[in-house]
Design a protein that fits this description.
Elements lengths: L10 E4 L5 H13 L9 H11 L2 E9 L2 E13 L3 E6 L9 E2 L6 H13 L4 E4 L11 E14 L4 H7 L2 H12 L2 E6 L4 H15 L6 H11 L3 E8 L2 E11 L2 E9 L1 H6 L1 H15 L4 E8 L3 H8 L4 E10 L13 H11 L3 H12 L4
Parallel strand pairs: 4-6, 11-12
Antiparallel strand pairs: 1-2, 2-3, 3-4, 3-5, 6-13, 7-12, 7-13, 8-9, 9-10, 10-11
Helix pairs in contact: 2-7, 5-9
């Protein structure tokens, strides 16, 4: 990213994500930016809009005709949790990207104005540049961690890279008679059933089926599904994203049966193998809340946590938004949700989950 030490202040505008020219300019900017993620892509914003009905927005900062700053946003609307401008909605990453030397202040100000215009009392930046000392903002540095490590050069080396106790679980999964399949749309119904079962068991409403289909459609070769079957029945499945040589298992889960079969362990090991054959060099296990079960699970696989920084804006006089499933406010609701019959959870869950963001 070559740029002068300090650029002149440019002009901020809303990009038209459905304009091919704007989309190409943004994709070109992202291709050159070292901190770009899959969640910055217009494809993600449009897939989320298509799958959840929430509005996609993108702020760009331009100087002398060049794009020097970009902030992707989703206006998430919920009758339960209220409104939030999230960067990026339904993602574990996103945030503000700038050319080196450019001043981010105009985009922070534009985001605050946009939140006021859309009656959103909160805004969230899930990564990227953060306003460390701007009024109305709080920066969280310890709430979540990311997990990423290089893929090994061979199947056996991959096993060796996994710590001993977890390696034993993977070997048990390898000993079982599983069918492992990969694909796209043809596997989506099977994947959704597994994922919906898994999140209900965790006490979380499932996202709309249309969201998964839209991501598969818009990401094309940069997304796929890997499913593990036992006796012709799917027991574990994951939808993954691919970005710059890294595979990210994003929406995955398993049935109760999967635990005793070690199907989830087999699934992640097979995904490592599959990704390596695709030419990937890294495995991105995504984020987890610090100290959670998922956090410990990923450490057991030999991944070291890297703290993530998030920025949260709350408008003057507004109450901070609370959509954190681990908060005391929602703990009782989660326990009740776990007891719902799966058809009921799948019927009302998407209506709730499209407002989580």
């Amino acid at each position: 990213m070559n740029a002068p030490l300090r650029m002149a202040v440019g002009a901020v505008r809303l990009a038209d994500l459905r304009d091919p020219q704007d989309e190409r300019r943004i994709e070109g900017f992202l291709a050159d930016h070292p901190d770009a993620t899959p969640f910055h892509r217009p494809a993600w914003l449009l897939a989320v809009a298509q799958g959840t009905g929430n509005q996609p927005l993108a702020l760009v900062l331009e100087c002398s005709g060049a794009l020097i700053g970009y902030l992707p946003l989703t206006l998430v609307t919920s009758p339960i949790f209220g409104r939030v401008l999230a960067s990026t909605g339904f993602a574990v990453g996103g945030g503000l990207l700038m050319e080196e030397g450019a001043d981010p202040a105009p985009l922070f100000a534009a985001l605050e104005d946009l939140a006021t215009k859309h009656k959103a009392p909160s805004a969230e930046l899930r990564g990227g540049l953060l306003p460390e000392s701007r009024q109305g903002w709080a920066v969280k540095n310890q709430s979540h961690a990311g997990f990423i490590r290089p893929l090994a050069a061979s199947d056996e080396a991959e096993l060796t890279a996994i710590p001993r106790k977890q390696r034993a679980e993977v070997r048990k999964g390898l000993a079982n008679d599983f069918e492992v399949v990969t694909g796209g749309k043809a596997l989506s119904a099977e994947h959704y059933q597994i994922y919906a079962t898994s999140v209900r068991n965790l006490g979380t409403p499932v996202f709309p089926r249309a969201l998964f289909r839209a991501v598969l459609q818009r990401f094309g070769q940069d997304a796929d599904i890997l499913t593990v079957r036992h006796q012709d029945k799917a027991v574990a499945s994951v939808l993954s994203l691919y970005h710059r040589g890294a595979v990210m298992p994003y929406w995955g889960g398993g049935t109760w049966e999967a635990r005793s079969l070690r199907a989830n362990d087999r699934m992640y090991y097979e995904l490592m193998r599959h990704a390596r054959l695709r030419g990937c060099t890294h495995f991105d296990f995504g984020r987890s809340k610090t100290g959670s079960g998922a956090y410990d699970f990923k450490r057991n696989w030999g991944f070291e946590p890297a703290p993530l920084s998030y920025g949260v804006y709350t408008a003057p006089g507004a109450t901070p938004r609370d959509a954190d499933p681990t908060s005391a406010t929602h703990s009782r609701r989660i326990e009740l949700w776990k007891k719902l019959p799966l058809p009921v959870a799948n019927l009302i869950g998407p209506w709730i989950a499209r407002g989580l963001g």
